[in-house]
Amino acid sequence: MNADQLTDERAGRLNGRFTDRLADVVAGVSDPEIDVGLRDLGVLRSVSLTDGRIRVHLTPTRISCPAVGEIARRVRSALAEAAPGYGIEIVWERGAWQPAAVTVAGRDALSRGGYRVAGTASSCPYCGSEDVEQAGRFGGAVCKVPYDCRGCGSTFDVIGTAGCTAMLPTPEPVRGGSR
């Protein structure tokens, strides 16, 4: 291996470590509506560094998520502090976020905060009772559906696109001719 190859290899390793550090910075940014980091919430897809620009790929929990602007602002702020002088590009992926993207650590953090993730066991995050019922179609945010626990009397939210869209009314079929 010649000196140029060694320098290129070393630069590649340094770039990889720096990119990993940047990904950790973004992972530590919390969602403004639910105090869980973006990686654990399954929103962070990737971080790359090319030609002095940091590119962050994110997927919102809902296509119409009102928090995307605040999330982007928080990510930019965290990266500007960690890597001054680099350009920052936020790319919102159009693919659907899935509740399965939430990490185990994310599920634990959500449970401690009084949330459950759509598609997981329907039990109260406070007492563990499975005697729960849906309390409404929409919670405090478009990605939350409220539930009540009959076991301990607590109210909690189930988050996730699948859970929310499942609550939307099914359109009635049109019968007969025109209206």
From TrEMBL:
SUPFAM superfamilies, per database record: Fe-S cluster assembly (FSCA) domain-like
Chain ranges of the MIP18 family-like domain: 27-85
Pfam families xrefs: FeS_assembly_P, Zn_ribbon_PaaD
Domain PaaD zinc beta ribbon: 121-158
InterPro entries: Fe-S_Maturation_MIP18, FSCA_dom_sf, MIP18-like, Zn_ribbon_PaaD
Protein name (database record): DUF59 domain-containing protein
Lineage: Bacteria, Bacillati, Actinomycetota, Actinomycetes, Streptosporangiales
